[in-house]
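For practice. Supply one:
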Amino acid sequence: MNDLRTALLEELREIAALPVPAFDPGLADDYAETGRRLPFENQYFARRRHLAALALVGDGPVLSGLVADICDERSWALPAHWDDGDPATCVDLFACETAQALAEILRLRDDVKDRERVEAEIRRRVLDPFFQSEEPFWWEERFSNWTAVCAGAAGMAALALGYDTDVVRGRVLPALQAYLFSFGPDGGCVEGIDYWVYGFGYFTYFAEAWRDATGEDLLAGTEAIASFPAHVQLYPRSFATFGDAHHDPALPPGLLARLHDRLGVPLPAIEHAPTFADDYCSRWAHLTRTLEWGRELGGEIAPGRTLLPDVGWYVERRQLGHRMWSLAVKGGYNEEPHNHLDLGSFIIAADGEQLLCDPGAGEYTAAYFGDERYEQVHPSAAWHSVPTVEGAAQQVGEDSRAELVYTDDGVDAYIDAYGDGALLRKFTWTEDGIELFDAGPELTESFVSRIRPETEGDRATWTGERGTLVLHGVDPATVRIEDVETTTHLGRPERLWALRFDFPGSGLRFELL
């Protein structure tokens, strides 16, 4: 038994030994009243975490009691996803995940009581609405991680319950093929590393279950998509955080190992094997496939550069002195799934620490996914390292676009996202830093960090734990420092700092120390 599996099983035994978490169904109504998701979701995912632990290492009677409680839930979908229909038959990400978990638990454990009722709930809540619907669900037509997760998890639940493979083929495979077609030739995931793990993870899990059932290989030809994490890594435990992402996502070792073994793709450098607790949503599929396929991965980070032209991501790592410095630049368009107003924004990191940061994902609320999205801190243009042009911020919409083009020593970003005003950003590596030149009318620069900048004359300095960044060329007559208090995706408080000043008309230089 490898060390990863041993550690996970020990963690699961510790969870299973604890009392079953409390669950207040009334918190489902809190979302409608306040727009907050976390109060209900915290207990929902704690219950799923306990379910997984009991199913794998727990006592049958306790497991049966918790399964019965889940069968009594008003809905397996999250309240934020309820539509105008019956919440009990809302087919969302987590309803499908719950159906898959329960179906595979029935196959794994023969001591679950009231098995007929459990299977009936799986069918009633998820499989019947999905397989019997004559109209496609929205996520079968608007391709994102939802497409792969919902179709893949429902498909795995159906396979676990013994559905005819022709039935599964007719509904699941078209959705998953459409999901694959949403990627360009570069394999980049426009939703970012976290949603690559989610969407392509569930695609992979279903693909392997389908191969076991039919011998057909759905993974063949997906090498570019499978290589995405290695392409956008800044350092071990650090990735580009464009969109609703985290700098240190939990990458399931089982998923990475299987993709490497099956497709021979490069792996990101992993210095920390994630625990089950690292997955806030406590996903059964990630856990069980890691127990089955996972191993310690290791690896080293090396200098290199990647341009993913289809999604518009550039990532370059250079060894300067004794530090690995990274520059990541964002192109694309301003109506992407999990979109931020971030065209031309960038990250500068020292050994993975973002000295100039992308804020990544904020706390998910009703407003975060509503009409007020771009008034929220994390998705807004004001809290990305992008300038205003003639006083205007970037505009929302598919027509707002940025194209990235390699140069000999960096990348150029051609940005058309400001109405009548266009912007060219030129990033150039030097022996000791990075030069930035912006061409556009009446620019006011913004540089965002979680570190408070210190200014002196025409210099600004961000001092981190792993490196120091000095910006030369600040206009001292117009410089100002602003900050905002906000909350992370998991509701933890954080503060962002912005250095703003009028572009002086000459190039800016970042010195990397």
